[in-house]
Design goal:
Length: 263
């Protein structure tokens, strides 16, 4: 029987976005059908395979997105979000393939569901870009999204602390205002897509919080204190308000975690 890690590695090494999207969803189906063995017996690549486009730029090189509701500005925003969702497929798959043996099967269930969600989110955003006359890869994208994965490749606890509980949680803070900006200019189609993604991301952050707490219990650690320590030592950046406290609370990420480390 094929191992979970082998199947995950194949997804990570698929560069074509539609093919990676399909491969991630097929991975989740194969796991649910009992076709994969719960083994992490091969290493994950240090860097996933990605397409030649979009061009990846450092944050300082990224063109400044225009404010307002112009179609060009909305396309730029949707393209940036599509790139986040594309990389998020690899983040979820790498988490499973790299650390899956350290957790019970329910962990794999949750995170392959997340990978399938991210694949669906990417498809929705790319389809919307095409409806607006663009496509994923038409604009440059942020090169730093994989940095958090590389910085936490040695420790599942650090990966959970930083990726879902910091980076994805930030999406909960900013997405509602983005939805309202799209609605304000009459782009209800984009607003509906972002609203759907927002609801799913609450569940994703909750999965991160739950399994972070589970591993802290296994190691005999205090979850809140451990998270705060890992954010200070492993996260390159600051946690800045405003926070969407209600959505974070729905995800199990209560203020006791982040209030004292926010800047």
């Amino acid at each position: 029987m094929t191992s979970l890690a082998k199947a995950a590695r194949e997804v990570l090494l698929t560069p074509d976005p539609p093919a990676k999207r399909r491969a991630a969803r097929a991975l989740a189906r194969a796991w649910r059908r009992g076709e994969l063995d719960h083994r992490c017996d091969i290493t994950m690549p240090e860097q996933p395979a990605w397409p030649a486009a979009p061009e990846l730029l450092l944050p300082s090189q990224m063109p400044r997105r225009r404010k307002g509701g112009s179609e060009r500005g909305r396309i730029a925003m949707l393209h940036a979000l599509a790139h986040i969702e594309f990389v998020a497929i690899d983040l979820a798959v790498d988490l499973v393939g790299r650390f899956g043996e350290q957790f019970p099967r329910a962990f794999i269930d949750d995170w392959l569901d997340v990978a399938a969600d991210e694949a669906m989110h990417f498809a929705l955003l790319d389809r919307r870009l095409r409806a607006l006359g663009s496509h994923y890869g038409a604009l440059p994208a942020h090169a730093g999204l994989w940095e958090a994965a590389a910085a936490t490749s040695d420790d599942a606890l650090a990966r959970l602390a930083i990726v879902p509980m910091v980076l994805e949680a930030r999406g909960l803070d900013v997405t509602p205002a983005t939805v309202e900006r799209f609605r304000a200019v009459g782009d209800e189609a984009s607003a509906r897509i972002l609203s759907r993604i927002y609801k799913d991301e609450i569940r994703h952050v909750r999965a991160g919080t739950v399994w972070f707490g589970w591993m802290c219990d296994e190691r005999g650690f205090n979850a809140v204190e451990t998270w705060q320590s890992l954010v200070k030592s492993r996260f390159r950046g600051n946690l800045k308000p405003p926070f969407n406290d209600s959505a974070r609370r729905d995800a199990g990420l209560t203020q006791e975690y982040y209030a004292v480390v926010a800047s």
